[in-house]
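Q: Predict the bound structure with adenosine monophosphate.
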Amino acid sequence: MQILESIADLRLWRGRQAGMLGFVPTMGYLHAGHLALAQAAREDCERTIASIFVNPTQFSPNEDLSSYPRDPERDLALLRELGIDAVFMPTPEAIYPSGYQTYVTVESVTQGLEGGVRPTHFRGVATVVAKLFNLVQPHKAYFGQKDAQQVVVIRRMVADLNIAVDIQVCPIVREADGLAMSSRNVYLNTEERKAALCLSQALQAATEAYENGERHPDRLREIARGVISCQPLAQLDYVSVADPQYLVEQTAPVSRPVLLSVAARVGKPRLLDNCLLPRHLNNDRHALTAVLGAV
Ligand code: AMP
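A: Predicted complex:
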């Protein structure tokens, strides 16, 4: 496995690759969710590359950039074991050299949900992903449903800027008890780890209500909110029932697939979780890719 630390090394490597190239962008501290993306890339593509880059522009000054968990040696061992061909690990200075001043802004789909709480986040995400796509020039790129709004934003950007990459969306990988895997789960102490289950339980309760015929988005939000507000260690940020393409909050009874999202702070980290309704859409990446952020 090639470890590419500079843009020059990456360009040299890219120039030598023939055939379909699959790309998995990450911020490192890898878990089974990241590895599922890498596995999907391996299945589809002749060549695969991952990136590990904790992107400073997607963190606001009061967020956890400096304490974001890192373990590059372990990450590289995991990727090597999976048979990934190369890993791009640039420095922040290589990606944002002094004098840098160009950013990508995606409009309405970045306004709600996470964008409401983190107003500059998606500008950083869109910018770094556009730069990584320009550098890596992949045929396919793999993203997790875990960050569903990110998928919608990236797919909008790719369509709007005519970037020739096929975005694949992979299902959320969960711990045995239902907690969505996240690099930030490492911040949770034992009590908070138990409390964090309220996010997946909230989705589960609303999904069951949907399956029992409940279609009113206010009622679905209320059911999910009720589960999280019973947990004293969780501070709810939002519950959303939105269409999975434009992320418009639904106000009338739903008759098409919707994205149900929750975000809450539990101890130090903010945790996110989501599911599509109906439930079967969450099970495989082909169904997910057809629905979430499809443009
Ligand atoms: P991150 O390193 O947190 O930026 O995540 C890199 C990629 O992994 C993103 O596309 C995430 O959506 C995806 N990802 C993170 N957690 C999970 C998970 N539990 N299941 C599936 N994909 C995930």
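A: The two ends are 34 Å apart (CA to CA).
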